[in-house]
Design a protein that fits this description.
Helix content is about 45%, strand content about 15%. By secondary structure, it is α/β, with parallel strands linked by helices. The structure holds nicotinamide-adenine-dinucleotide.
Length: about 600
């Protein structure tokens, strides 16, 4: 028969413990909350009061409910006050010795039938459990931050956890309105095992000055629809906790991608732990506050030494495919005169037709009026001759993703374009410097990586090569802003920001599936429900196309030679078998 759980203990009232306490109390359970000392209790209590005040202000709780919620919580500094609870969740710092000590004590004071759960993100639940006389009643109950908001709970079953204990914890999670997923005991479980490689990679990009913190975060929010950028998320998680998680994962996987970036250690030593100390990658107006305030790293518009952008009014677009037509539409709508260079009359009129239909759709949806549609169409002119791009101030190349083809285009642009024109490539994986080197004016060549569909996606990666002139870069960014887009700057390395951060994570998900740790369904759910991502990795891979994904992953591997970037064999096999995702009706899932 299922245990009746009415009173629970929470040990540690930090970032997670306070949130977990709130979740229990909000759902009618009595909570005995234990901290190390009186100061910890005061901090934890403050946390809970703040958080529930915020819920009242947002109309998610009324004052009576808040009072009742807070009255269900009692505070203590002694584990012996947990003698009568039915269930305990431990949320002390991520260190095995500390957790082992807490569990050994809990085992002594708690009733023999009480379940002891750890909220550990990465440590071995099995190892924690063996410090008790009841390893069968020890489980992982891994909540996500912020616990009151995110619905996923990973229930970690060790090889000795009793089946009814797992059932009871699943039932408890469901009672709390959470979505539980039961999995085995492996460092990082599902979500963190996939998330932390990505977070660590973002820290390394920041550490090596590949991109600014603002640009890294904006790239993942706007390019992938993530609720937060990686550095913002690390500040929320806490850098010390993140370090411990990565360190544990590294020791289990020996995957260099999990070896904590050196910068993390330096920041922790300097006391920059993230939001909880008021400073991490960003600076906050107070400890535990989500409000970012400007600091020395905040970009300023008032930089006097910044180069003046060149004037751009006439824009050339080379190509007639999906990206080219989207880009033509974006420029024409923003008031630029556009010259589209096509290889044949048929392609030119097809491209124009695509733009017309897309603008028409915008009119039907009420996003554009008819006059604006006609004006935009009136600004577009097509040609078969490169010579007609001679007086363009900016030319955007969006032809096939083949180096030889792109180089030939740049050679021609170099011959025909006026001096001072900015020449941009939309490549998503080829080196921009190759295009630059095909011209006699590499200073004017830049990458403008639009996202698909160009009229919708706000992000543009502006890629400077080692030769790009600051003025050309400033011009490209000013143009992006005038289009209503959000430009981010990065260097000329495979994958730029978004693909370099996204695809290794997708590849890791394939490896996890390959290792039979969890099903594609559970992995997709964990990433959506636990991390708030718009799509799970397998849904996304099937949409992008497995062949395209494999090609990007291969490019990343060849550029960086990171063993961890090597494409997962399962991905290769699916592509070989012609299972390319939605477009072939079969990928990681079947589509009808
Ligand atoms: N931060 C996250 O995003 C996140 C998410 C899920 C799980 N976790 C896991 O939750 C656990 C706690 O992490 P956190 O980020 O909340 O850490 P934290 O540093 O914010 O909080 C830990 C709290 O435990 C208290 N504490 C230390 N020793 C104690 C003891 N002996 N008895 C009682 N309290 C004690 C500390 O005073 C502190 O308030 C870790 O295992 C972590 O991996 C963290």
């Amino acid at each position: 028969m299922a245990r009746e759980i009415t009173t629970v203990g929470v040990v540690g009232l930090g970032t997670m413990g306070a949130g977990i306490t709130e979740v229990f109390a909000r759902n009618g359970l009595r909570v005995v909350a234990v901290e190390a000392d009186a100061e910890g209790v005061a901090r934890g209590r403050g946390h809970l009061e703040h958080s529930t005040d915020r819920a009242v202000r947002r109309g998610k709780l009324n004052e009576g409910e808040q009072r009742a919620l807070l009255e269900r919580i009692s505070y203590s500094t002694s584990l012996s006050d947990l003698a009568d609870v039915d269930f305990v969740v431990e949320a002390v710092p991520e260190r095995t010795e500390l957790k082992a000590k807490v569990f050994a004590e809990l085992d002594k004071v708690c009733r023999p039938d009480a379940i002891l759960a750890s909220n550990t993100s990465s440590l071995s639940v099995t190892e924690i459990g063996v410090h008790t006389g009841r390893p069968g009643k020890v489980v992982g109950m891994h909540f996500f931050n912020p616990a009151p908001v995110l619905k996923l709970v990973e229930v970690v079953r060790t090889v000795v956890t009793e089946p009814d204990v797992v059932e009871d914890v699943v039932a408890l999670a469901e009672r709390l309105g959470k979505v539980p997923v039961v999995i085995g005991d492996r460092a990082g479980f599902i979500a963190n095992a996939l998330l932390f490689g990505y977070l660590n990679h973002a820290v390394r990009m920041y550490e090596t000055h590949y991109a600014t913190r603002e640009d890294l975060d904006a790239a993942m929010r706007l390019g992938c629809g993530y609720p937060m950028g990686p550095l913002q998320l690390l500040d929320l998680i806490g850098l010390d906790t993140a370090y411990e998680i990565l360190d544990t994962m590294y020791h289990q996987s020996r995957n260099r991608l999990h070896a904590p970036a050196p910068l993390l250690k330096q920041m922790i030593t300097a006391g920059l732990l993230g939001r909880k100390t008021g400073r991490g990658f960003y600076t906050y107006d107070a400890p535990d506050s989500p409000t970012v305030v400007p600091d020395v790293h905040t970009p300023s518009d008032a930089d006097e030494s910044a180069p003046t952008p060149r004037q751009v009014q006439r824009v050339g677009v080379v190509g007639t495919g999906t990206m080219a037509t989207g880009i033509v539409e974006v420029f024409a709508k923003a008031g630029y005169d556009v010259v589209v260079r096509a290889r044949s009359d048929e392609k030119a009129s097809a491209a124009l037709g695509t733009v017309r239909r897309s603008l028409e759709k915008a009119v039907v949806k009420g996003k554009l009026d008819e006059a604006a549609r006609d004006a935009a169409l009136g600004r577009i002119q097509t040609t078969l001759r490169f010579d007609d791009l001679a007086d363009c101030d900016l030319v955007v190349e969006a032809v096939a993703e083949e180096l030889a083809v792109k180089k030939a285009v740049f050679e021609t642009l170099d011959e025909v374009c006026k001096p001072g024109a900015v020449l941009a490539t939309t490549t998503s994986s080829l080196p921009v410097i190759e295009c630059a080197a095909a011209t006699s004016r590499p200073g004017d060549v830049i990458g403008l990586h639009f996202f698909n569909p160009a009229p919708v996606m706000k992000l543009i990666e502006v890629v400077d090569t080692i030769a790009t002139a600051p003025e050309a870069s400033a011009t490209a960014k000013a143009v992006c802003t005038s289009l209503g887009k959000h430009p981010v700057s990065c260097g000329d390395r495979a994958g730029f920001i978004v693909n370099a951060l996204l695809f290794p994570y997708l590849n890791d998900a394939v490896r996890m599936l390959e290792a039979h740790y969890a099903s594609a369904e559970d992995i997709d759910n964990a990433m959506k429900v636990g991390c708030g991502l718009p799509m799970g990795p397998f849904e996304l891979l099937d949409v992008v196309g497995l062949d395209v994904s494999l090609a990007i992953q291969r490019t990343l591997y060849l550029e960086f030679r990171e063993a961890g970037f090597a494409p997962a064999p399962l991905l290769e096999h699916l592509v070989t078998a012609g299972r390319l995702g939605r477009k072939t009706g079969k990928g990681f899932r079947d589509y009808t």
